[in-house]
Amino acid sequence: MQQALARGDSLEQPVRLLLSGNTGSGKTTEINKLCFEAGSRFRIIAIHTNRLPQLFRMSMADAVFMMAAAWRAADETEPAHDALRQDIHEYFSDDIFAGNIRLLGRDDTLGGLVRVEFDARYLSRSEQWIQRQRAARRRLPNVVATLNHILSQMRAADRRPALFIFDDTDKIALPDAESIFLAHGHELAGVTASVVYTLASGVWHSPRFAAARAWSTAQYHLDDLRDSMDDVESVGWRNLDEVIARRADAALFAPDARRAILHDCQGRLGRLIELAHYAAVNALGRGAARIELVDADRASAWFHQY
Asked: What is the reported pLDDT for 99?
């Protein structure tokens, strides 16, 4: 993903990346790594939709509205030209855009990434809300045009293009996800910003997935390592063992502790990281210089308890 973004940035072209994989396959880990590496070149805005109980009803238009609203909120964290700030706040000031988002702040550990969260009101299905949504969707072309104008002006001002991150769109129900990414992808591509969308594996394996390849720049699928964790010689085991090797000094793990953590993570990258982190905290609490089997066992017990 980093290489695709770098190529797009050098050509001053937006990049649309699709990242697929089952729960625990490492999508969030890959995105965090991307943000850390790309933060100096991009203004990164992460859009969190996990608080939306009706997320499965999200549409293509909602994705565009979320980018516009997130940009408005994120603009408050950085200096901008007065005229552009006025454009942002005047055009994106109604309750469709501004009334249902919360600025979570900047994460300087991930390249200055700005986090924006949508609350449950955004996909409310009250009659009044439905009418407002319909009115907003009629002006969707104007929303896209205005957002594109602001994005281009901001890039010209500081040479940092926008990068939107959708890390929860793999939670959308399959029919709605297919509608967004397979039936309306070209409309999404109308926004001239680089974007990363997560996809459920069902969308990736859809017979219609060729439609997504037509409008996206690159597509990535993370294998479900749970299907290949049979023994220490399996592909899944070797891949996750390599993750540990790349992230930590081998001397920090006793061999049996390392094997125990790999076994207990059940092929899930996110769980592997949590277990290793908790085991390290436990080792520090003992005043030990490395993670021993007792630390790995306590980490596993803690994980299964909570």
From this structure: 55
Running DSSP on this structure, what letter comes out for residue 291? B
**Residue 24: left if φ>0, alpha if ψ -120 to 50, beta else—which one?**
left
What is the pLDDT, as a whole number, of residue 224? 60
- Contact call for residues 147 and 74 (beta carbons, < 8 A): no
Q: Are 271 and 24 in contact (CB under 8 A)?
A: yes
The angle formed by the CA atoms of residues 43, 48 and 50, to the nearest 5 degrees, is 170
Contacts of 50 (CB under 8 A, 6+ apart): 168, 171
Please tell me the predicted confidence (pLDDT) of residue 229: 56
- Which one-letter DSSP state was computed for residue 290? S
Q: pLDDT tens digits for 26-49?
A: 788 788 888 888 877 888 888 877
The structural domains of the chain, ordered by start, are 2-222 (3.40.50), 226-305 (1.10.8)
Lookup: tokens for 296: 């790995």
Q: What is the DSSP annotation of 237-270? A: HHHHHHHHHHHS-GGGB-HHHHHHHHHHTTT-HH
Dihedral, 262, 268, 273, 274 alpha carbons, nearest 10: -100
Residue of 1, 27, 26, 58 lying closest to 178 (CA atoms)? 58
List, in order, residues 6 or more apart from 145 with CB less than 8 Å away: none
Q: What pLDDT shows up at residue 64? A: 78
- The model carries a pTM of 0.69
